[in-house]
Amino acid sequence: MNLSYELSIWEILLRCFLAILFGGIVGYERGVKNQAAGIRTYLLVCLGTCVVMMTNQFITSRYGIGDHSRMGSKVISGLGLQVAGTIMV
């Protein structure tokens, strides 16, 4: 994967739109089945993850520091914390 370029505004908007679309599809399916996390939860999680990963891509391509998978692993840890909070409530 070549990360030596910066994303244009259209690429950023497309990625955010796709994250919202797919998160909405999964959230809607869960909402119809009356499960704990619904459409709003999945929309926010997918959009937040998309923004974090684009930030990671920007930092590694601009400054050449860091690891491509480090921020992604932190997102997974944060989601684990969110799921644990959902289970406890």
Automatic annotation (TrEMBL):
Keywords: Cell membrane, Membrane, Transmembrane, Transmembrane helix. It is found in: Cell membrane. The keyword Protein biosynthesis does not apply. GO terms for cellular component: plasma membrane. The chain crosses the membrane at residues 12-29, 41-59. The keyword Cell membrane applies. Pfam families: MgtC (PF02308). It is a multi-pass membrane protein. Residues 17-88 form the MgtC/SapB/SrpB/YhiD N-terminal domain. Belongs to the MgtC/SapB family. This is MgtC/SapB family protein. It comes from Streptococcus pneumoniae.
